[in-house]
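Wait, can you check?
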Amino acid sequence: MAQGCLKCLKYTMCVANFLCFMCGVAVLALGVYLTVNFRMAALTPNLASFNLSNMLLISGIVITCVSFLGFLGALKENRCLLLTFFLLLFLLMLVELTAACMLLVYEKEIAARVQDDLNIGLEKAKAHDQNSTTVLSEWDVVQTQFECCGVNNVTDWGNKVPSSCCKTTCDTTQPIYWKTGCLDRLRTLFEDNFLITGISVIILCIIEVLGMCFAMTLFCHISRSGLGYKL
């Protein structure tokens, strides 16, 4: 009975880690796609390294590596791989909880840093020719998708208001611009998804705890069976 339960646990870990590996590959592919087709250097110059595409790339690499380690450790019943898998999951959970706490504690400082960086990016965009799509494309995408204009409002653009700020068309004598700034839109988006993000972090931590429990249970069984160095 015990052997049957442990075999079930072993193959459950293999299947779960294989699914996580496939999800990691999908996240990694999405990160590569966004990196190639959408850059954030002109939107947030100083925070370009923390954009969505880079976060997806890092997350995809971490998920694929850790899940492959767990899959191989469970399949081969290798104590070293299982212990490494357990420690990596524990470290990942600590990093996630630390990042969540810092986000809550330093929320105002982070918002001010984002606002300053958006202002720098907008000034750099204004310094270029308005017809240069390579410079204004990021602002055009954000302003079109979020129906906003500038950092705070349309006056941020001065006399170089791009067409993406117009509600309908800018070919009229008195064009109608979006009244809300992109900073307010981004803040609203974050607040609207704050609960979903919190629930996602909790669910992810629960999955990681279950993974650690399964790995340690299998590790202890292998140790008692004398199969610790089975390849």
